[in-house]
Amino acid sequence: MSTDQTPIALPVTAVTCLEDRAHVERSAVLELQAGVQRLRLGPVSALAVDRTLHAELTADHPATVLDLRIVRSWTPRGPLPDADDSALRHRLHSLEKEQAALKQRRDRLRARLDALARLAADLLRDIGEGAGSGETDVPRWSRELDRVDGERDTYSEELRSLESELAAVAAELDSVRRAMDLAETEPVELVGHIELTVQAAAAGPVGLRLSHLTPCALWRPAYRAVLDGGALTLETDAMVWQQTGEDWSDVRLTLSTARSAAATEPPRLGEDRLTLKDRSAAERRTVEVELREQEIGDLGPVPVPGLPGVADGGEVRVLHSPSPVSVPGDGRAHRVPVSSFTTPAESEYGCSPELSPLVTRLLRFDNRSGHVLLAGPVDLVRDSGYGGRGTLDFTAPGAPVELAFGSCDDFRVVRDVEESRESVGLSQRTVLTRIVRLHLSRFSAPGENDERTVVLRERIPVSEVSAVEIRLSKDACSPAPETVDTEGIASWTITLPPGGRRTLTLAYEVSASGKVTGL
Question: Model's pTM, two decimal places?
Fold first, then answer.
């Protein structure tokens, strides 16, 4: 068997980025000899998962893979920079040496000052003892005190100057380190190579396709919405991070929501026994009810069967980058374009005071991207430039999208609620009366003369049992809601001039029979 120790380049040509890892494909053309031979390919990322290595050969003559493995080698980096290192790294090394030398000098000066402080204390104690015993050697005492004080002043001034120099070196050292973090990456100490043993019937070129999994790579969806008049442009991007130890240059990038680490076995079925029992007399006389919140979902006019959430173990979604991309292995976020479309958008100023007192500009449009829109952040851009960041929910292809495009600071909404409860009739029927007042104000800037329309929405409970009735008190409403849908959402369309104010009143009654409990 012939062995070739010269490494053959094996570049990355395609990557499928998953939620927490990546599936990497590499391609190369090998010039094989007849017989069995061992080739060394690479270098490759040392993080490649060994058990996921898979190689395929394509050739006009028979060629077989006999053995495939990854061999890792460790080359530790020396403590000193070499000639091939950059000027930043040499400057960093010299600053670290200078900082260490300054710290040693500082420690020596502090030790000298401590010794002088102890000497001054001993001298003062000697003066006190001599004066107590009748000795009066004033010239010697003055000379020694002046010498100690002079040395302490000299070393203190030198220490202050050294502290200032040390602070300047530390600031420059931090600046050089930040520049290195932005401009350079630490060299890889652990490098992997692929050892491939093949058998060929004849000499000639053979195509090699090798794939494996690697950690330290992930992606998340991100969007950019640009509003230009009545048209909205929605750009779908992918934020890709990878620190696998090698760069991805001009690769075909595929983005998938598959979670290969999740268990794929179906859950075990267990017995679920149902038992019947007679209700007691007290249970027959009462009806238990409770108030609960229920979210109403709408998938739009296009029926798409099976639309699970992104992270709930549902259907895998796959997106493709339209052109080859390059993602450096620096661990930073890199924005990769996926798709873009422009569509007319309906604009509306709306407010749900029960949830938020802000009046929000809401855009409605259809998803014309040709793929699902995964939940993610949206950068909002309008005529004046960047306007903030919003969120986008999971949306099927062709389904309607609602995107909040920021709040309007020139509106203010105040919500007041009054509630009363009473029992009427011989049956002790409970009547719960609730009055909701909405105070809407507009604060306009000087020079504004146009009117603006705001849609206010307030919720009315919906009963699912005949023992509880909910009735809208139209006489007490001022004005009455324009529409009340089947989910109990009452809405008003209010037009306010600059500086205008409006108060809306919503009143409804919840009536329950005497045998209802829990209301």
Answer: 0.69
